Amino acid sequence: MTRTVHLLAIDPQNDFCDLPAAWHSRDPHSGAVTAPALPVPGAHADMQRLAAFIRAQEAGIDHITVTLDSHQRYDVAHPAYWQRSDGGAVAPFTAITAAQVRAGAFAPRDPAALARTLDYLDTLETQGRYTLMVWPVHCEIGSWGHGVHTDVLAACSDWQAHRLRAVQSVFKGMSPWTEHYSAVQAEVPDAADPHTALNTHLLDQLASADLLLIAGEASSHCVRATTEHIIQHLARLHPGWSPRRLVLLTDCMSPVAGFEAQHEAFLEAMHAQGARLVTSSEFASSAYPSSASSSLF
């Protein structure tokens, strides 16, 4: 029995990978070295396993979608947006709440953005999913860090040549006014920016697969947020769709350092809702896709 398999690789980008020094980018003129901006411990090995998985399962993967975190330097979750009460810089990995902004501890560097920023923080906090985090500038559009991990890129390139179909790229995070962990929609969609709204086209494509494989970085944030939104919205938009179609490749994802508890809670919650948790090697050793009686279903 033939089944359709869709691989969703979430943000397999250089800036999220703890790459060895030899893999860092070097300017050919100045010799300056650029290292990953927000490396996730274990991500380099994750992406090498993902690349090997794509090559090993090439004939059985019908579609590949790669999401790309895509930011400008000026972004509500980057240091350039913020200042402290004394005008000083805000360090990366600083959490900022609406209450702190109202108290004057932090403020947007652009005073005209204050009201909009408070509206954003209030809405974000009401949802209860995240507190705003100021991250290091990462995945800046056009930069080396924005690019896909070399091994994953090569595996996807060969898959395209052999399967005669293109990888779909989904860009997220281009609005400076909202965080966009999930590839499905921004944390607080902006009515004036359709790129932040619910991506129903992507959801429809994912829903058509008999088996949806998910991998990428980081499991505590973008993988988690995307997967949560997939389950939330596919069940609503496509009656009959079941989380049992979803497989998390657990050895092809890792959490941001310090967010290991969120990683564990995410996996437990997905398992409780019916998603399958397997390693890439466990998937490869299963009967799927040649047998309709695979244990993955």
The overall strand count is 12
Give the overall average pLDDT: 95
Radius of gyration from the alpha-carbon trace, in angstroms: 20 Å
Given the structure, what is the number of helices? 8
Oligomer: single chain
Element order, helices and strands?
Answer: EEEHEEEHEHEHEHEHEHEH
- Give the class from helix and strand content and strand pairing: alpha/beta
Strand content: 15-25%
Salient structural properties:
297 residues, alpha/beta, two-stranded antiparallel sheet, 8 helices
Structural write-up:
The structure is a single chain. This protein is α/β, with parallel strands linked by helices and 297 residues long. Helix content is 31%, strand content 16%. The protein contains 8 helices and 12 strands. The protein has helices spanning 43-56, 98-103, 114-127, 150-163, 200-207, 222-237, 260-272, 280-285; strands at residues 5-10, 25-26, 33-34, 63-69, 82-84, 94-96, 106-108, 132-134, 168-172, 211-216, 246-249, 276-278. Strands 9-4-1-10-11-12 form a 6-stranded parallel β-sheet, with helices on both faces. Strands 2-3 form a two-stranded antiparallel sheet. Helix 6 (222-237) links the parallel strand 10 and strand 11. Helix 1 packs parallel to helix 4 and helix 5 packs across helix 6 (222-237). It is globular and about 60 Å long. 40% of the residues are buried.
